[in-house]
Amino acid sequence: MAATFFINPNSKNLLIKDVIEESIKAAGVILLITGAGGADGSVLKTAGIGSVIGEYLSYSGMGIFIPFLIAAGLKTAQGSSTVAIITASSIILPMLSELQLASETGFILSVLSMGAGSMVFSHTNDSYFWVVTKFSNIDVKNSLKIFSSSTAFMGITAQLIIYLLWFVI
User: Fold this and answer.
1) pLDDT of the residue at 93
2) pLDDT at 1 over 50
3) Domain containing 130: what range?
4) Is residue 6 part of a domain?
5) Number of domains in the chain
6) Average model confidence (pLDDT) for the chain?
7) Is 5 inside any structural domain?
8) Looking at residue 83, what is its pLDDT?
9) What pTM, to 2 d.p., does this model score?
10) Which of 59, 70, 158, 164 is the most buried (most CB within 10 A)?
11) Residue 129 in contact with residue 148, Cβ under 8 Å?
């Protein structure tokens, strides 16, 4: 026989089973995309593609923009901000001297730059995109126009502020 536990006796008397089913419908896609993003990040890190790109960029003279570009590229490719920052940090750390970021201030600005890069362009492979889209009842087309462009603007603006700090500090 089905469980007879009620969530709120004053409401519609939903069974716990019903609540769990509704939760899985709402969050299932988000959990699936988050897991796929983490797996993709691991593949990129293991394959060494990020290291090759990072070494190539370290000689470009772009300094504080390199941590941003690597984190932004990883975030856009696989969706997870956390995976982007972790992977980018493992790529950036060995090249801090070449980027003239080996000081304590340079290290802090590099971390901030990776954080700014990890905010850039949240789209369909990002679980946060789906949290905002699904729970705000926004259709995907509008969410891509408004939310994705907003995250790109936030990340780029943050990076420009970090770039200005690089000169001041």
Assistant:
1) 81
2) no
3) 16-168
4) no
5) 1
6) 80
7) no
8) 81
9) 0.69
10) 70
11) yes
Please state the three-class secondary structure of the chain as a single string.
Answer: CCCCCECCCCCCCCEHHHHHHHHHHHHHHHHHHHHHHHHHHHHHHHHCHHHHHHHHHHCCCCCCHHHHHHHHHHHHHHCCHHHHHHHHHHHHHHHCCCCCCCCHHHHHHHHHHHHHHHHCCCCCCCHHHHHHHHHCCCCHHHHHHHHHHHHHHHHHHHHHHHHHHHHHC
Taking alpha carbons only, the member of 92, 90, 139, 85 closest to residue 116 is 85
Tokens coding 101: 């970021």
What single-letter amino acid sits at 150? Answer: S
Q: How many CA atoms lie within 13 A of 72 on its CB side?
A: 20
pLDDT for res 55: 66
Query: 150: which 2 tokens?
Result: 């907003």
Question: Are 29 and 130 in contact, with CB atoms under 8 Å apart?
Answer: yes
Tokens encoding 166: 């690089």
